[in-house]
Predict the structure.
Amino acid sequence: MKKNDPIDVESVILDAELLIKYHLPERGIVALETSLDRHPTNTQLREKLLELYISQKKLDQAASQCIALSGLYVRAGNFEEANRCLMQARNLNPQASVSSKLQELRRLQQEQQRLNTPPVQVITAPASALPAGPPPTLAGNLAEVSIFDVVQVLENNHLTGTLVITKDPIEGKVYFTEGEIVNATLDKHAGVEAFKQLMQAANGSYFTFSKSPVPFAREINATNNTSLILDLLREYDEEQHADGVTA
């Protein structure tokens, strides 16, 4: 995606909140930071990231985010919000250098009052497997590392092979081709349904990943691994709410 492509801000924020809800706040932070790399002037994303930094006690990053937000609000002519952000930055990090920015902000406020001109508005884009033979490449306990992290390692390294997830009496497999999830099997289930059940049983399971010299046929079609996992988490969350269960 190009830097200035439109972005669905609400979807990004909802995805981040879903990751937080399922105890993956760092993933929520990464999702917001990645979106901000492409859309650095979006105040909604920055405000949400600020909130998440504070909740995770990342006060230096939160203070820096306040300063960045202040600059955006100044550009938009919203001096009240700009002042709020600078004061919040000082409270979060007393060493943050905001004195000169506060002085400049007061000068701009006085200039605006003198000229009696409306604030300048910044218009932003609308939110728019093969049997295991040799030792496994990866192995571990999904009580200590999330399946999301395991999937990302395989994706980042463009690995082809089989991820075996075991939790007595369950044993299922997820098939990767060049780092993409292309199929899953569990008992008589295959494809998305099998992967969904493995996701639900993942916590506390053991996993091994073994490379394959050949790719696997695609039975799961998704934009990317992250979208697939988030879609299944949303579906699971909706089912829990429908059953009157809170996560």
The CA atoms of residues 160 and 177 lie 4 Å apart. Residues 117-132 have pLDDT under 50 and may be disordered. The first strand starts at residue 138 and ends at 141.
